[in-house]
Amino acid sequence: MAAAEPKPPAGVAAARRLARGCWSAFWDYETPKVIVVKNRRLGVMYRSVQLLILLYFVWYVFIVQKSYQDSETGPESSVITKVKGITLSEHKVWDVEEYVKPPEGGSVFSIITRIEVTPFQSLGTCAESMRVNSATCDSDEDCVAGQLDMLGNGLRTGRCVPYYHGSSKTCEVTGWCPVEDGASVSQFLGKMAPNFTILVKNSIHYPKFQFSKGNIEHRKDGYLKHCTFHEVSDLYCPIFKLGYIVEQAGENFTELAHTGGVIGVIINWDCDLDLSASKCNPKYSFRRLDPKHVPASSGYNFRFAKYYKINGSTTRTLIKAYGIRIDIIVHGQAGKFSLIPTIINLATALTSIGVGSFLCDWILLTFMNKNKVYSHKKFDKVCTPRHSSGSWPVTLALVLGQAPPPPYPCSTDPGEAGHLQGEGQSQEGAVPPPRPRPTSAPSEQMVDAPSRGAGPGLCASQPSQQDYTLTDARGLAQL
Asked: What is the pLDDT of residues 236-272, one digit of tens each?
């Protein structure tokens, strides 16, 4: 006799059964089952969610965001500026060449409104500024010769000398003398500055749509020589007064002229290219860009010097300038109808409507009183026949539901299937047939209990011999 094969351990057998079950379940196909639930509250919630989603996509996505368009952001842009005007200070008349820095007319420029002038600086030795750390002294021992402070004005000589005014003393340095703090004179240029005019030429181009436009109206009657900007009547006359820009930014001109600041002129080109080109117009806005309420970083100033020679020695005038810096910022977005984004957003809208079904199904299967009945009605397990029938009308009738086959268990073991099927038949023979009821009753559609002849897990199988003869003549006629 052959030796009996050793049985695998129970854990290994269980693991194999689990693996076979997972592999079999992997190839299952799931299809939705439609159940009509006669519940007013659940129906109101379902339709309300659908309505909200529909309103969101119609109003916000398609009307406000215009998601049916192909869009392009960040147009190609060029900016040219020109400032005109004169002003007075305590000592002289200032013109554009002196108070505009840099003079090239780019998108960023400064208009000087106040200066602190230190005249006749020459290379020599003088007292250091008291603002420099450890610059004050009482004797020469407090000053180290050759010491160089990066925040100072020169190289220390080692001597302690009297300051420019008062009784204080500071260490002597070699550099441009006198230093700024000791001999500077302040001059205000902002008396007539609010009347300065600024011409801003801007042209944009959207390469994706081959669309270009400028912010100046094409007229041959000298229109720009006598106009100033107005949002309604003179939109295409981009000549702004400096006082108007500061006012629109919400600032006080006198305070801003003393401390300096940065003002942004924002030009926005939002264009709907489905309309005519005349509907694509620039929109101007103004705001202060530097942090006004942070003393350490608010304001704007810079230094420059003018050099000349006196008796063969180089001399310079140091100017610390406070001013209003103008930044021209251009941005925008253009859109035009395109079929691809329209289809994508329509598909997204139709898919999102299914959120209502998901929410109501969750409530139905979790919080409703008859959730087990609903779960049984919603989830069914159906097995396909192992062998195809020999008659195509029978097969087609089975698919269309005209001749339902007898159920049998979803099992791969023929013996087990036959055993369960026989058991079901014996139970069916012991129970009297149910009393016929109207098929149109809502309760029959909603809470119909499962058939007594088939236990849980039974599903469609190969039709028996008696099913080859169809009794539904109407169903064959429809075929």
From this structure: 999 999 999 999 999 999 999 999 999 999 999 999 9
Q: How far apart are CA 438 and CA 324, in angstroms?
A: 88
Position with higher pLDDT, 403 vs 180: 180
Task: Give a yes or no: residue 474 inside a domain.
Answer: yes
CB atoms within 10 A of CB 395: 15
| Dist CA 169 CA 137 (whole Å) | 6
Report the phi/psi class of residue 107: left, alpha or beta, with left for phi > 0 and alpha for psi in -120 to 50: alpha
**CA-CA distance, 116 to 320, in Å (whole number)?**
5
**Pairing between β-strand 87-88 and β-strand 93-94 as defined by DSSP bridges:** antiparallel
Give the domain range for residue 400.
380-425+448-479
Cβ burial, residue 73 (10 Å; 0-12/13-18/19+): exposed
CA dihedral 158, 160, 162, 167 (to 10 degrees): 150
| Residue linked to tokens 């009784």 | 167
Contacts 24+ apart (CB under 8 A), 61-68: 61/345, 61/349, 62/345, 66/272, 66/335, 67/341, 67/342, 67/345, 68/337, 68/338, 68/341, 68/342, 68/345
The residue out of 299, 319, 334 marking a domain boundary is 334
> 3-state SS of 6-32?
CCCCHHHHHHHHHHHHHHHHHCCCCCC
The C-alpha atoms of residue 352 and residue 158 are separated, in whole angstroms, by 81
What is the spatial distance between Cα 390 and Cα 469, in angstroms, rounded to a whole number?
A: 12
Q: Apex CA 459: angle with CA 455 and CA 465, to 5°?
A: 105
| Judgement on whether residues 348 and 320 belong to the same structural domain of the protein | no
H-helix or E-strand containing 374?
helix 371-378
For residue 135, is it within any domain? no
Query: What CA–CA distance (Å, rounded) separates 439 from 258?
Result: 91
Domain count for the chain, please give it: 3
Q: 282-303 pLDDT, tens per residue?
A: 999 999 999 888 877 789 999 9
DSSP H helix total and E strand total for the chain:
13, 18
Whole-number Å distance between alpha carbons of 152 and 178: 13
> Contacts for 430-435 with beta carbons within 8 Å, 24 or more apart?
none
Query: Mean pLDDT in the chain?
Result: 80
In the structure encoding, which two tokens stand for residue 59, read together? Answer: 């109003």
